[in-house]
Amino acid sequence: MNIDAGLIDRLEIAFHPKAIAIAGASEDPLSFGHQFLRHLLDYNYTGHIYPVNPNKESIFGIKSYPNLSSIPGQIDYVICCLPASMVVDLLAECPARGVKIVHLVTARLSETGRKEARELENKILHAARKLNIRLIGPNCMGIYYPCGRLANGYNLPKESGNIGAVFQSGGSSTLLIRYGELRGLRFSKVISYGNALDIDESDFLNYLAQDDETEVIAAYFEGVKDGRKFLRALNNAACVKPVIVIKGGRGKSGAKAVASHTAAIAGSTPVWSTVFKKAGVVPAKDLRELVDLLVAFSFLPPIMGYRVGIVSAGGGLSVMSADICEEAGLTVPPMPHAIREELKKKAPEIWDWIGNPIDVSIMGAVSVGLAEIIRELPRLMAGSPHFDFLIAEFSDDNPFLTEIWTALAARQTEAYISLHNKQLKSMIAVVHSEAANSHLPSYQRWKILSEQRAKFAEAGIPTYLSMDEAANAVRKFIDHCRAKAER
After folding, report:
1. Which of 33, 179, 287, 438 has CB 3.0 to 4.6 Å from 26, enough for a Cys bridge?
2. How far is Cα 262 from Cα 268, in angstroms, rounded to an integer?
């Protein structure tokens, strides 16, 4: 792997700074200088914080400095929230304080398309290279690193995880963290890099590829500036870790939006598809699918076969679920002979009624003893070599009173988590609910289903909102596992 060791060292400084200066720090809640200072305080950053504002003696009770030169001691990392016209002067102050890397929140540069903005951006790059300073950005939100108490948004998780992300878009990177949190995902490092004036997408891919805290890489690219460098970095990263990518600007309108967002060159969709396929990258069409795939890649052990055992919550759902799985490229085999023979002995009244998918709603039409046998079927399927993995579907598809249904839902959840813990088969949960509407009295059961989903996520079971999302994500996951095994 061709990695710039010097750049890796600079990025390590950015992720593990002992002292941070915020140029343009402010008490104005609408300013970025306010936001980034608040993030350091809210996330309990343990290093030295130096607000820089010539018009303030202190901000939030912390001594403020008129410029970098007046700060005592060394500064490892600078977050620049100044106007673009002031950046070159700021960079000139950096060497005397030992600054090696600067995050430019600063925007209104080449992404505007204006000639004078592009020229200023080039001056900033020239000054940084002359002073041996590396730049993240401009026009970006920078770094989220929970282990180091570094954040670029409010109310982000403080727990770290195994997913590293490199995003050209700052807002989308924050949405990834928030959506992922709801599904039990946690992140090692998330980087928003914007215009990529200096350190680019390839550099960050190389960094995450060698990062011991990162096991899965997620990315959002709008375009690249050095195609050959990017191809090397993408191939290198995909060789050592799963890489899941959204390519922004696939259509004509999206490509036009790319230019005004980060001044990137979008490139054609067929070219990107070929690049991803050759490198072994897993494509995602949007943030929702990216999160679906990350759930599979983060929680599932390798799965080499497509045979799925389905435990469904209702008759109609079981039919639709079987169709959805087969349409996604999975196989729904019949119930194996060994299980049917065991059923024939224990439950002759229903043994020929039960198949794959299992419709657990029939428990309402059988005796208590037969219902207990039906509940045992997922365990038998998990122990059978005829299935590669199981998907259990949970919903409000039943005739029971809320009190009875709630008790049944709790029992089913505990049983499925217990079966998951025995590690007989990979387990996936699909929990249907419309949590956004759970405030309505008629939809109180959806709130219970949302709680059920949270319990599955906490237990490390990949959890989805629909069978379609689960089937497509798991299919792509299996494809990746098989392709990796064949390399």
Report:
1. 33
2. 17
Residues 6+ apart with CB under 8 A from 154: 38, 39, 42
Residue 411 tokens read as: 């029992």
Write down all domains in the chain, each with its CATH number in brackets.
5-136 (3.40.50.720), 142-299 (3.40.50.261), 308-486 (3.40.50.261)
What's CA 329's distance to the chain center, in Å? 24
pLDDT at 89: 98
Bridging pattern class, strands 243-247 and 19-23? unpaired
CA-based nearest residue to 390, from 308, 476, 474, 304: 308
pLDDT at 255 over 50: no
Q: Are 59 and 53 in contact (CB under 8 A)?
A: yes
User: What DSSP designation does 137 have?
Assistant: -
β-partners of residue 394 are 431
Averaging pLDDT over each range in 3-7, 115-119, 257-261, which range is the top one?
115-119
- Round to whole Å and give the CA distance between 95 and 97: 5
| Residue 485 region by backbone torsions, left for phi larger than 0, else alpha for psi between -120 and 50, else beta | alpha
Identify the band that residue 71 occupies on the pLDDT scale cut at 50, 70 and 90. very high
Give how far Cα 404 sits from Cα of 361, 398, 445, Å.
14, 10, 12
Q: 438 or 210, which is more confident?
A: 210
- pLDDT tens track for 293-316: 999 999 999 999 999 999 987 788
Q: How far apart are CA 458 and CA 440, in angstroms?
A: 26
Task: Please report which confidence band the pLDDT of residue 260 belongs to, taking 50, 70 and 90 as the band edges.
Answer: very low
Look at the block and give the residue holding tokens 């990137």. 264
Around 339, how many Cα atoms within 13 Å sit in the side-chain half-sphere?
Answer: 24
21 closest CA partner among 85, 110, 96, 84: 96
Q: CA quadruple 92, 97, 99, 104: dihedral positive or negative?
A: negative
Whether 396 shows a pLDDT value over 80: the answer reads: no
Phi then psi for 77, rounded to 5 degrees?
A: -150, 135
Between CA 195 and CA 46 the distance in angstroms is 30
pLDDT at 366 over 50: no
CB 4 within 8 A of CB 206: yes
**Residue 28: φ, ψ to 5°:** -75, 115
User: For 67, how many CA atoms within 13 A lie in the half-sphere containing its CB?
Assistant: 11
Entry field: residues in the chain: 487
